[in-house]
Amino acid sequence: MNSHLISFQLNTMPVSVETTPDARLIDVLREHFRLTGTKEGCGEGECGACMILLDDRPTLSCLVAIGAIDGKRVITIEGLRETPGFAILAQAFNDAGAVQCGYCTPGMIMIAYALLRDQRDPDESSIRRAMAGNLCRCTGYAMIVEAIRLAATRRGQSW
Amino acid sequence: MVSQLPLHPCTGREAAAAKAAGAVPYAGGTDLMVRRAAARRTGQEPPLVFLDRVATFRGITALDGALRIGSLTTMAELCSHPATPGLLGAACATVGSPALRNAATIGGNICTASPAGDSLPALYALDAEVELCGVDTNRRLPIDRLIIAPGQTALKPDELLAAIIVSTDTADRFYYRKVSPRLANALAKVSLAVAATVHDQVLLEMRIAFGAVGPTVIRCSEIERQCRNRSLADLAQSARRLADLAAETIRPIDDLRSSAAYRRTVAGNLLETCLHSLCAPTT
Amino acid sequence: MNSVFTANLDRADTPDKCDGGARYVHDLQVAGMLHAVTVRSSVRRGTITSITVPELPAGYVQVSAADVPGVNQISYFKDPCPFFAPGSVQYRGEAVLLLVGGDPAKLHRLARQTIIEYDEIPAIHTMEEALAGDKPPIFGSDNIYIEERFGHGDVDGAIARAAEVFTTTTETGYQDHLYLEPQGVLACPEVDRMTIYVSSQGPHAARKVVAAALGWDEASVRVIQTTVGGGFGGKIEPPMFLAAQSAVAAHHCGKPVRLIYTREEDLLCTTKRHPSRITVTSALAADGSILAVDIDSLFQGGGYSQSCAMVLDTGTKKASGVYHFPAIRVRGRGLASNNPMPGAFRGFGAPQNYFALETHLNALARKLGREPLEMKRALFIKQGDATITGGRYHFATGLDETISAATEAAGYYRRRKALPAGPSTRRGLGQALVKFGAPNSVDSKISLDSRSIGLRKHSDGRIEILSELVEMGQGLHTAFRKLVARHLDLPVKRVSHAPGDTDAVPFLSITGASMSVVLFGATLLEAADKLKARLDEPGEVTILQPARQPDHVFWDATALRGEPFHSYAWGTFIAEVEVDMITYQVQVVDLWVALDVGSVIDRRLVQGQIEGGAVQGLGFSLLECMPRDGFSCSLTDYLIPTFLDAPQVHGLIVETPYPPGPYGAKCVGEPPLVGVGPAIADAVANACGVEIYQLPITPEYLLQRMTKR
């Protein structure tokens, strides 16, 4: 496939990349922009480790061709970590013991951020449904649920 | 030359022309990107054409007694849109995971033509039609004429799925259940979508569609005929017999994901449960 | 007793893991780095007759068995275990060669164009075929990698005299570790040296393997441990293969080579839990009491033995469960096959054996109409009893306390006969009891002096733990920091953990088998005792403390006599399930896991191990399935539990201190997984009225059982 210039907004900055339009967004983020906080766990949309926000919606970056994001907005964990909401989530993940090996964690935090943006105080069942596409093999999930509930109680007006 | 065609066409005709020239249409990407993964690594795949700027493929619009659902409508949009028929909304809510539903489109789910496609039994039970957009002509087909075999549709090389038309004024009761090996983010082993019209304790009409138990979705027209114009009490009496008939109608196979025996039994159980729930007195 | 450790400690690695800053091996890039793609066997068994690689562009090379300067053998193992197929292949997915170059897409294209031809040899697909001997053997003359027998008393006599003989056969399948981070290595050649960055459970073991592969002395190889995205035993063996292959490639090219697996490759060719078939026979007296038990345990290994012998050995030694039977015979065999390669996995042979024994006893109790826990109680091991290898249970057992904790929390006795059934659902409660021995004893003739753990006091007063034991998510480094700070009476922020780097930390051990805290934690405290006297010395002080087995342990590995394990964690598992009678799907509603962990070092970490282990056990019990002779190479088909599948796990901690352990601590890494399967199976049996003899309990299996009834 021929190369094209694809322009989009990445973590609030306008960027362009010359690439074949079928390149995966995850590869462009990791290899071209060196944003390695977005992890590849499966490459088939089954694990959620590559979660980013595309026009504010949680999206699996391993299933997105770069041509599809021309003119759109992408936020990765490296962008999210500048926000007050991230600080509250990270502290809650720490306090609840929600982080073990950490490979799923950035993806978990990305989708948790979007969940708490859309629902001020989700109950356990809403959290579990919203997170059902993010796999964790270490924690058994309860501590991650607890972290999100904790973040909901501490969020104030931060996002 | 394909490379001369626009990467992001703005009209259905332009998009159809790109497809006719060999480009692969990209809607939500969720299935396409998995299938292309191996080939993508070798850089040997045909180019993509991105459909997201084709305005006529977007949006949900009310027609007279019907709904036009643009093929690029995502599963998440369908789940939250107030006009979405309940049966279709319930089916779309079982597709993959929340993030997947943010990207996956109804058009993609149809054109993938998987026997286990989650929206398909609901669309069959709603007697949905599809609107196809070609370079020169547009046409309409019933959904069961579009999907002809696993992974195969009746789309011509220069045709794209533009929209889905579902009637909004027929069925007033529905049943949907997807049976998958895991509670979230898993493919169907059996699914059942039923739309029914009940008036004065009589079932006027019922449409029954099973997913993942044959090469394409299976409508049970003989059972539908037997159910028509029967009282609910009478129907409840016959539920097990009709369920057994369903188990004979479907054509399940043994595969990695389940067994034919399991699919047959569970398909029958689902229809029996469905009939009992439709016949239960509403409060 | 309550532990001296009251507060939880924040893990040092959490901030970087949250914000994406933690560096996993896939995140590393160095100048001039090349990529490697593996070309694999497409057949299960055969002799390679030809390999045709397309003409390679400049800067691209192939690397195979012929290019290995040292030995083409994973030197960690004694039995043959080549890292490049040595002219023949034993399983589908076995690495034949690497293609190395700058552009991954080009490499994949070249790999696809590479043609390997074989003279196929009839593959051994099943354990029956392995034992039948009609196909050419894979290993020795009988396909048996290992056979072990333990026991005491006259089992045959008891069976001959028995009023009744009761037999059950249980089967379990493959389970993949499914660590979220796929395998990966980066090998960087330097002048007369090779540095390996690897996600593994043992940097020194990887160094030994790489040195042997290159034919170098070990000092010329440096292994740097990267952040590990989950291990569970799956980063013991496979990283050795990747490290050896990429080191040979990097040496060959003179450039850094990175080898990262896709999930598809990882599922295809890395190790898994051994499938098993275990027959348990009990000889019963007229009153139903057990006179003797005979256990015949078969484990399906792969085309090379790898750690089959270790897994079979520890599993077989655990096969007698929490019981002291009047007579017992345990026979374990690990068999060769040409199926996907099994290896080390959390539980190490115990989940299969506990499923067999507990299922047997639970089925027997149902058959006899007895309350299973009361029936089992008559046979419990007591302090001072003999082990099946002639050693002793030296210390207090916490089993009764775990039973009390779990049955009370679950309302087990009150509720088990009175669970409500819905219009189309049935409920059941089930239980299982386990003990988990750890560490596995080493032959007492072998000195552990060459293995050590250390502490360094820096001149600014900081204390650094020098240990190769790997933090793979379980929280080990946090536990070690707490132990050292407490022992030295220093604030824990003064204590840090040195990075895993073979240049910086001494050889100690693979991280696994639940031994790190209970054994090496104690060694670490011995180091701290020595350092304590020298804390006020100016400048830097380094203490290296050799490991040793505790005084009560004697083990003769030739005769298989003595203490098989140093210590025992005890546990009670209770599962409550709801079975959907329309779909035959089992949902675990609640899971109570009561564990005697000795003493708690960090309650939050212990809970994390219990909850995570239990849910991994739930996956093994209900979901995780690969055809026994086949493959699922996609997460679309290999399903692990999601947020919605995981039940409420109630971790109940019992503390029966183990005096030789650090502050009384025993192990906690593996035990939470091992009793989940039999507890769920018992609950399903109670709900549905059919015995369950297979894991995972798929709806298809349950339907089949209920139809046969």
UniProtKB/TrEMBL annotation, chain A:
Domain of life of the source: Bacteria
PROSITE patterns, per the entry: 2FE2S_FER_1, 2FE2S_FER_2
GO molecular function, a single term: metal ion binding
UniProtKB keywords: 2Fe-2S, Iron, Iron-sulfur, Metal-binding, Oxidoreductase
SUPFAM superfamilies: 2Fe-2S ferredoxin-like (SSF54292), CO dehydrogenase ISP C-domain like (SSF47741)
Domain 2Fe-2S ferredoxin-type: 4-80
Annotated protein name in UniProt: Carbon-monoxide dehydrogenase small subunit
TrEMBL record, chain B:
A Pfam family it matches: CO_deh_flav_C
Cited SUPFAM superfamilies: CO dehydrogenase flavoprotein C-terminal domain-like, FAD-binding/transporter-associated domain-like
PROSITE patterns assigned to the protein according to its UniProt record, in alphabetical order: FAD_PCMH
Domain annotation FAD-binding PCMH-type: ranges: 1-171
MF term (GO), any: oxidoreductase activity
Domain of life per record: Bacteria
InterPro entries registered for this protein in UniProt: CO_DH_flav_C, CO_DH_flav_C_dom_sf, Diverse_Substr_Oxidored, FAD-bd_PCMH, FAD-bd_PCMH-like_sf, FAD-bd_PCMH_sub2, Mopterin_DH_FAD-bd
Name of the protein: Xanthine dehydrogenase FAD-binding subunit
Organism, scientific name: Desulfofustis glycolicus DSM 9705
UniProtKB/TrEMBL annotation, chain C:
Species this chain originates from: Desulfofustis glycolicus DSM 9705
Gene3D superfamilies reported for this sequence: Aldehyde oxidase/xanthine dehydrogenase, a/b hammerhead, Aldehyde oxidase/xanthine dehydrogenase, molybdopterin binding domain
Domain Aldehyde oxidase/xanthine dehydrogenase a/b hammerhead residues, every copy: 19-122
SMART domains hit by this protein: Ald_Xan_dh_C
Pfam families named in the record: Ald_Xan_dh_C (PF01315), MoCoBD_1 (PF02738), MoCoBD_2 (PF20256)
Highest taxon above the source species: Bacteria
Protein name as it appears in the record: CO or xanthine dehydrogenase, Mo-binding subunit
Alphabetical list of InterPro entries matching this protein: Ald_Oxase/Xan_DH_a/b, Ald_Oxase/Xan_DH_a/b_sf, Ald_Oxase/xanthine_DH-like, AldOxase/xan_DH_MoCoBD1, AldOxase/xan_DH_MoCoBD2, AldOxase/xan_DH_Mopterin-bd_sf
Cofactor section: Mo-molybdopterin cytosine dinucleotide
Coiled coil feature spans: none
One GO molecular-function entry: oxidoreductase activity
